[in-house]
């Protein structure tokens, strides 16, 4: 059993490390931590690929040319560095002579941590900006550069900051732990679907009875669980490694794929309601089942594959939803960790019941309640499918699912679900219900409460808890919440309300297709917005957003709407909103080929390419602040953060930086 658990652990670590490596000979990680009232310690940790040698940062003699180095920003950081301080190297330093040059190399393999002491007074805010210029040697004799820049702000000691992370107003966080946990819980919930639940006692009993010893039965059950994890995770890993980290993100934000997802979810929902049984070809399960009869690891693996195929009608929509949502962050590791968490949750019960077979007796018997679970999933699938259709509607500007229409459909679905749970609506495969159980009663209460919560949104209530899922408030025909901003602007049109003068042209491009909330005025073209900023002599707030970006809507609803934030955005900045998924075709003369040879033909593709090449990110929202020369006013890549005060503080900092320039 310990060996199997070790295999699971090694496989998990291997998957994560494989994605993280992405063929780089050396992976760098930076931290800047205030260790006391006068010292900030900068650490550069290097994870070195097998066979690669990373050279030391210390010169052994004046002729030593094969060394790595760190270059501190001459304006912001160099004043904290003393020439008498020597960097500390924590690793196994090795020496090798090369008689062909001749030279003596001093290098590290596997890993090393370089530490630098920065003398930052307790009352100072330090901007730690530096570049690591490393030299490495590969097994085939090449010398690839290992260059990476790093920037961090460390608050004064009095501010209670012990490190740079707390000082950044709202850095984009991967949220990998939260993604893994959410998908793990979803995997556990998938166990109670009618396609999976009845197989637990049958499968576990088979392993325990057919094995020569109980230990062998437990080992087979653990191998079975590990196989389920690999079947779900490996394809996602391969897809990411072949097509790059952004492939799933690109798929998830595509109008065509969102329309396809809606169709799939609609078909699954109808299937869950009992209209027909949707399964993968029976020949797949038959062939997998034949292989499973051979025994050994291969046999156990194909038993797990049989489960995945047979349970597809229940788990397929869940997997599709998780992949779609985790991919929108633009981070390749999220979908892989999502599938790892989901498959672990799905596989865990098989191992637990094999370890503790007496628990099988406590499982509820299969019956009509499993069909009820399936019907509930049908309502959920239908609601999620509408979200995908809404994304397509926003991208193409059809206005079929504006906010009030979308809300009306969700309210009706929530009411119908509540009525079903109370037994007022029945489907063909439902068993007669003599009474309402306590779980059904509480689920019905939750469903009706959700419908009541959504109802004020029909008249423009912000519904903050759902703001990331709902269409933007600007799509609603009658919205009391938006009306106050129009009244405040005297009912003027958006360009007139911008506060622009004759010195700046009002926005013209895409204004009939794209809109911003709360009486704000945005330019939807970079050149047009930069021209306005120069005319008004104001800094630029660059807003990378998307029609299907849930966190963009949450940021607008939770932060932008705040009076103090709104005032600063209107008066102190020129807002340029660049939609990365907008399908409008570029004029032929503006189309071009990016660095990877891909043809850029749409407004959205051009905006996304600009975000990636200029700032190294493909996630939304991303807020970057530029001066009139299109140079960043801050090193912070500001993403979603619901803290209004942090955002206000950041706006003030970049405004002051603009004044200095």
Question: In a few lines, what is going on in this structure?
Answer:
By secondary structure, the protein is of the alpha+beta class. The protein has helices spanning 2-21, 176-190, 199-210, 214-243, 247-253, 255-272, 282-292, 296-310, 312-327, 333-355, 368-396, 403-421, 438-454, 480-488, 526-536, 550-560, 563-572, 603-615, 644-660; strands at 26-34, 39-48, 53-55, 69-72, 88-91, 94-98, 103-108, 111-119, 126-137, 145-154, 522-523, 540-545, 574-579, 592-593, 599-600, 622-626. Mean pLDDT is 77; it is low at 1-11, 15-22, 158-174 and 490-501.
SSE arrangement:
Elements: H1 2-21, E1 26-34, E2 39-48, E3 53-55, E4 69-72, E5 88-91, E6 94-98, E7 103-108, E8 111-119, E9 126-137, E10 145-154, H2 176-190, H3 199-210, H4 214-243, H5 247-253, H6 255-272, H7 282-292, H8 296-310, H9 312-327, H10 333-355, H11 368-396, H12 403-421, H13 438-454, H14 480-488, E11 522-523, H15 526-536, E12 540-545, H16 550-560, H17 563-572, E13 574-579, E14 592-593, E15 599-600, H18 603-615, E16 622-626, H19 644-660
Helix pairs in contact: 1-4, 1-10, 2-9, 2-10, 3-4, 3-10, 4-8, 4-10, 5-9, 6-9, 6-11, 7-8, 9-10, 11-12, 12-13, 17-19
Could you characterize what this model shows?
Helices cover 46% and strands 14% of the residues. Strands 3, 4, 6, 7, 9 and 10 form a six-stranded antiparallel sheet that branches. It is built from 19 helices and 16 strands. Helix 1 packs antiparallel against helix 10, helix 3 crosses helix 10 and helix 4 crosses helix 8. It is α+β, with helices and mostly antiparallel strands. The radius of gyration is 29 Å and the shape is globular.
